[in-house]
Amino acid sequence: MPQHLRGRVGLVVPDRAGLLRRLENLRKPLKGTKFDFTEHDDHVEAICPWGNHFLCHDPAPRFGRINLGMPYVEFDVPVGAAKGIADFYGRVFGAATEVDGAAARVSAGMDQELVFRETKAKLATYDGHHIQVYVANFSGPHRELLERGLITEESNQHQYRFDSIVDLKNGKPLIQIEHEVRSMRHPLYARPLVNRNAQQTNRNYALVQSPYWV
After folding, report:
1. CA atoms of 169 and 73, how far apart (whole Å)
2. pLDDT of residue 139
3. Which among 48, 38, 39 has a CA at the least distance from the CA of 5?
């Protein structure tokens, strides 16, 4: 069943005109779905057939070195949750965080961040959607989460999951989003996303030793 992100995905796309042409070409094939798009001064908002929202930006200094990619994922969270969420990521993962007005910003990679923006609107019921993160300190966050009873799955020696961000002072849940946490020794870490060997899957993947792509 399609999942629906309670928020928005930010993308940087270098050719706005080309993006708009491609989106326009999809209007007829996707008629009858939730697909739509709107051009704004500083971005194009696209809605996928299942209702997920993507904000497509032109390259800009605010996105650092990214000229094609995903600089942020923005989640809607209840009013009053931003400070606790920033504290959670700072303590558990040692991430750089800041609270900007009603939003918590969490560094999640080079020129990438998770944004948790407070809203008064009623949040949809959580449907199980998740994010995947790779961390250099794999055991430290695991220990913190385990002590607080937050680990939901011990996948293997390179991966675990949890799905609740809580107030560290009292354990109160702030927002539910499953995190698939992987170490940098995970076989899929830094896997190229182009020129893939079609015979390989997530279960049997191994780095190609040849200097040539397959």
Report:
1. 26
2. 96
3. 48
Picking from 28, 11, 16, 27, the residue whose alpha carbon sits closest to that of residue 37 is 27
DSSP state of 196: -
Q: What is the CA radius of gyration of the chain?
A: 19
Amino acid in the structure at residue 200? Q
CA angle, residues 62, 68, 69, in degrees to nearest 5:
80
Q: How far apart are CA 150 and CA 142, in angstroms?
A: 9
pLDDT in tens, 167-202: 999 999 999 999 999 999 998 888 766 555 666 676
Tell me, what's the pLDDT at 114? 98
pLDDT digits (tens, 9 = 90+) for 139-153: 999 999 999 999 999
CA-nearest of 39, 38, 115, 34 to 71 is 115
Q: Which residues contact 180 (CB under 8 A, 6 or more apart)?
A: 130, 131, 132, 133, 155, 159, 161
